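ok trying this again, last paste got cut off
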Amino acid sequence: MSKRIEFNFNAKKALEVILWLATKEHNRGYHALLKTLFFADEYHLNHYGRPIVGDVYLAMEYGPVASTTYDILKQEALAIELLDDDLPFENVNKKITPFRAPDLRKLSPSDIEALEYAVEKYAHYDFKSLTDISHQHPAWKKAREHDEHNPRMDYKDFLSDSDDEIIQDLIDNSKFMRL
C-alpha cells in the first residue's frame, strides 16, 4: 500500500483550468499558470480535502510543476490522448491563447474559489518572484532535500495543520475520490 496521498488525475478538468487561467489578465505563460495552479491546489486541499485536478507535482528547478498539466500545455501527444479531443488553445512562445471559454460546468464552486484565491494572491508576481516564493514552500523543499532532479512532491507536505488521522484517511482514500 502506498504511503503517499495520490489522486486520480482529471485531464478534462485540467484542460478547463488551463482555459480558465489563460483568460485572466495575468496570463504570462506556463510558469505563471503552473504556479497559480499549485497554489490553488494547496488552498483547495487544505480547505476541501482534495486538489482541483489531482496531478502529480514535481519539484522542478523553477518550482512545483503539475506534470501532466505541463505536458498538456506543451502539447505532448500522450497527454493529449487523455483528452479525446483537439486542444482548444494555441501555444505560442509558451503563452496560451484559448479558442473558447472554459466550460465552468466542469469546475466546482470551490475549484473556482481556489483558483480566484491563487490569482488574487500570486498573479502580480514576476517569474523570479514566483520561483522564489514557490522555493520556500515546505513541499518543494522536502522533495528536493535528497534529490535535485525533479523529484515527486507529496501532497502530505501541502497540508498545513493536519493531524495523522486526516493524513492517513487521505492516503487510504485519495485514489477513490472523484475530482
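PB: full thing came through this time. The chain has one domain: 11-176.
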